[in-house]
Amino acid sequence: MPGGFSDCLSQWRQWIRPLFILTYALAALIFVPIFLIQSIEEGFQKRNKEVWIGGIFAWVAIPVSFWEIIQHVVHYTTPKLQKHIIRILWMVPIYAVNAWLGLINPENSLYVDSLRECYEAYVIYNFMKYLLNYLNMEMDLEASLEIKPQVKHIFPFCCLPDWEMGREFIHICKHGILQYTVVRPATSVISVICHLSGVYGGGDFRANVAYPYILGINNVSQFVAMYCLVMFYKANIHELRPMKPFPKFFCIKAVVFLTFFQGVIIDMLVYQGFIKTTSDTHEAEHDLSTRLQDFLLCIEMCLAAIAHHYAFSYEPYVVPGSKQSCCQAFIAMWDVSDVQSDIQEHFGIVGSSISRRIRGRNMYTIPRGTDQDSPSSVSTTAPGSLYQNECDEFVINYGTITSIQKP
């Protein structure tokens, strides 16, 4: 009997897919009839129709994304890249479930929206790490950038000083994107606090509520992240060509950036009265804009799931005859130690930069990194190998940060 169970586990590739399909089919057979009966009892109002239509698209998108995630777990042959791809693919199920729950209960959608907002920042970070790891696997990225022609800023920012090619360029792009990973969750927490305090005013563009200010902060932070991503793509467009970057960039920008501005436009149209509700109260207007945004997201996530299937396909990572541990791949999918390390580095660099500016010290160097997903502590100091001056308190090794004691 133990031998049979062990053989069954060793053949997990053969039964995991039918098990997933069976689980999903059972969930559909259980929950869909329950919701149908509830809709019939309530007279199948217009709101129920929105939930049904949105639910159809959302619950088609989820298995498509789950299938792609499972395939990457099954063929987990390039952990440095696939770990970030899997995290990106989780965006569609999270967005779809979030939008569908928002349709069911728009009054409390702010709380589930906060999870979606935090994850969209996480997706931007993982996409940047995916690009960095891909390029560093093929070449010495910093050395390659150092010998390239200077990449100029995009209009209308042509007057900005150039980012020096090499270490400084990577440093600015990476931390320009990483700041959004910090700002977005922070503003989401502030939004929830303001909502509980009755001063949030979702969808209201008056000066005495928090919504327009939080929206402005998110807008600026997201624009900085998008601009840094575009600059990084512009600098490495030829090196990224073998991995077909355009569909991947399009998927990320469409889901993260365009859906954000879509929500802003809907709020403005409802606030200005171009899209009207049967009630003139602010609560009814906010309820309408939230439901419309969530309804569109349900439909868009179905399209995004199909686009992700082609843009982030598992097929390039299929290696015949290779055997990977499903458990190891699953654990690696949830390992966020690299995120913690990079955020710690981000705060260290920002704090050190502010400290230098206060003391009137502007010169610094950024050491060339090696393995971005394998942090290691710094135990020795070599000329030119540390990001520090005589007053700094941190040593940065491109992805790690270690406190040092001065002699």
Describe this structure in words.
It is a multi-pass membrane protein. It holds the Pfam family Solute_trans_a. The chain crosses the membrane at residues 19-40, 52-73, 85-104, 210-233, 254-274. InterPro entries: Ostalpha/TMEM184C. This protein is mostly helical and 407 residues long. The protein has 14 helices and two strands; from the N terminus they run H-H-H-H-H-H-H-H-H-H-H-H-H-H-E-E. 68% of the residues lie in helices and 1% in strands. Helix 2 runs antiparallel to helix 3 and helix 6 (109-138) packs antiparallel against helix 8 (167-197). Mean pLDDT is 77; it is low at 374-407.
Q: What share of the residues lie within helices?
A: 55-70%
- Overall body shape: globular
Count of distinct structural domains: 2
CATH-assigned fold name of the largest domain: Rhopdopsin 7-helix transmembrane proteins
What is the strand tally?
Answer: 2
Gap between N and C termini:
64 Å
Pfam family, one: Solute_trans_a
Transmembrane segments: 19-40, 52-73, 85-104, 210-233, 254-274
Main location: membrane
Subcellular location: Membrane
